[in-house]
Amino acid sequence: MRSAAFAPALPGKHARQHNAALAYAGIASGAVLLAVLFGLVAVTANPIFIGLAVGLLAGVLLLGNVSWTIWSIFGLGLFVVGVLPLWVEGYASKAVWGVSLLGLLLLAGTLLRALANPAVTRGAPPFVWLALSFLIYASADGLAHWGGPTQFFSGFKSYFQVFGLIFALAWLRVDEGNVRQWRKLFVILALVQLPWAIYELIWLVPIREGLRHAYPLLVPIDVVAGTFGASLHAGGANGEMAAFLIIALVFLLARWREKALTARRVMLFAPIILAPLFMGETKAVVVMLPLAFATLYRRELLARPHYALAGLLVGALLTVAAGYAYLSQQKKTLEQYVAGTLSYNVYEGGYGGRELNRTTVLTFWAKQHGLHDPVGTVFGHGLGSTSENAGGQMARRYAGKGIGLTAASRLLWEQGLGGMLLFLSILLAAWRAAGRLWRQTGDAAIRADAAAIQAALPVFAFFLVYRAALVEGRVFQIVFAAMLGYLAWLCRQQADAGPGPLSARHEG
C-alpha cells in the first residue's frame, strides 16, 4: 500500500472531500489540545493563568478582525481594568493581564501584516516610525543588557502592552464608522468618571480613613480615581484621571471654537467633566490646566487676543478653584501646604516612603552616570532593570530609593539618554504632524481635534516627570496610544483626501 504522503492527487469532488476531511481533522485535533490545555489551567485555579489563557484564546480569535480587538482593548482596558482591584486584590486582580495579552497580540499581528505587505505602511506620519524605532531600540537594548527573562518580558509588557494601537490605527485600514464610535466611547469614558468619583468619595474614602492605622502612608483621598485605577490598600491613579479629563475638556473647547460643537453641548458636558477634578487632591491639576489652556489658545494671542484672554481667564479661574478646593481639604495653612508639597517634590524629602522624589530621582541618576559610565549613560541598563516587582538589577542595587518613580527616571535608567531622546522625539514629531494637519485640513472637526491633540501633548510630556504611568499604567497608556493612533489615522485620511480649501490660508 502506498504511503499517504505519496498518494496521487484526488481529482474534483474527491479532492475537495479529502481537503475538507483534513481541515476537520486539524480543527478537531486543535480543539482537543485546547480543551486539555484549558482544563489544566482551570485545575490550577490560578486567576493569573486563567486570565492569560482567556486573553490568549480571545486574542487568537480576534486577530482576524482588528476592529474587534481594539473594541475589546478599549472596553476592558478603560472600563474594567482600573476598577477591578477595588473589590478583588492580589492574584485575582492580575487576571486583567489578559488585556495586556490582547494588546501584545495586536502589536504582533500588526507588525506581521506590515512585514508581509509593506505597502500598508505608506503615508504613515514620521512619529509612527519613531515609535517603531523606540520599540526596536528598547528591545535590542534589553537583550544587550540581559537581566533574565522575567526582567526583560516584564519590562517589554510594561512599555509596549498597548503600543499596537498606534500601529494598527496608522497602518491598517480601519473603518471610519468604527473610529466615530470610538470617539463616542471616549466621551462616555469622560462622563462616567463623575459617578465613579462620587462612589469612591462617599464609600471608599471613609473605609480608607479607617485603614490609616495599619497603612501609615495611605492617603485616603487618592482612591478618587474614577475608572483609572485604585485599590483600598494602595495608591490611586487620580493624576491620570485628572489628566484625561483635562484633555477631554480641551477637545470639547477646541470643537466649540471651530463651531463643530454647539455651545449647548459644551455647557452640558463641561460641568460633568470638570466635577471630578474638585473631588480629589491632585495638586498637579494646577500645572496641567494652565498648560493645556495656554497651548490651546496660543494662536489666538496674536490673531484674536481678546478671545485668547477670555479662554486663558477661564483656565486661570479653574486652576484657582481647584487649588482652593484642595487647600480646603487640608488642616494646614497655605504656607504649610506649599512647603510640604515642595519638600517631597523638589527638595530633599522622599516621595511615597522612598528616599527620592520627582526632582532628586533625576539628580541621583545624573550623579550615578557620566563619563565614568558612558554605556549606561547613553544606553541605560535594559528593559525592566528598575522594576521592583520583576526584581530588576538596578532596583535591587538601589533598593528603597525608588529610582523608577517617574517615567523620565525609568527611561533614563533603562534606556539611557538615547532612549529618552527617542521617546521625546515621538512627542515632538506628533506635535508637528498635528500642526501640519491643522493647516492642511478643510474640516472643522479635524482642525479642532488636531489643535486639541497639540494641547494634550504637553500634558503627556509633563507626565514624564510626574508619574511612571506612560511606561507602566495600562489605562493611561491606552489613552496615550489611542490619541497617537487617532492622529496617525487622521493624517492618513488627510493624505488620501488631499489638502483642503483652508490649507493655503493657514500655511505656515
Salient structural properties:
508 residues; mainly alpha; 22 helices; 0% strand; disordered N terminus; transmembrane; transmembrane helix; O-antigen ligase domain-containing protein; membrane
List the helices and strands and how they pair.
Layout: H1 12-44, H2 47-62, H3 66-79, H4 97-116, H5 126-144, H6 149-160, H7 164-171, H8 176-210, H9 238-257, H10 263-274, H11 285-296, H12 300-303, H13 305-328, H14 334-343, H15 360-368, H16 374-379, H17 393-397, H18 407-440, H19 444-466, H20 469-472, H21 474-497, H22 503-506
Helix pairs in contact: 2-4, 3-4, 3-8, 3-21, 4-7, 5-18, 7-21, 8-9, 9-10, 9-11, 9-19, 11-13, 11-19, 18-19, 18-21, 19-21
Give your account of this protein's structure.
This protein has 22 helices and no strands. It has 2 domains: 18-62, no CATH class; 63-89 and 97-506, no CATH class. It is mainly α and 508 residues long. It starts with 11 loop residues before the first helix and ends with a helix. The chain crosses the membrane at residues 21-41, 47-63, 70-88, 94-115, 127-146, 158-174, 186-205, 225-254, 266-294, 306-327, 411-431, 451-468, 475-495. It comes from Candidatus Nitricoxidivorans perseverans. This is O-antigen ligase domain-containing protein. Keywords: Membrane, Transmembrane, Transmembrane helix.
In the predicted model, the low-confidence regions spanning at least 5 consecutive residues are: 1-10, 501-508
Q: Report the total helices.
A: 22
- SS class: mainly alpha
Q: Give the beta-strand count.
A: 0
How far apart lie the N and C ends? 79 Å
Mean of all residue-level pLDDT scores: 83
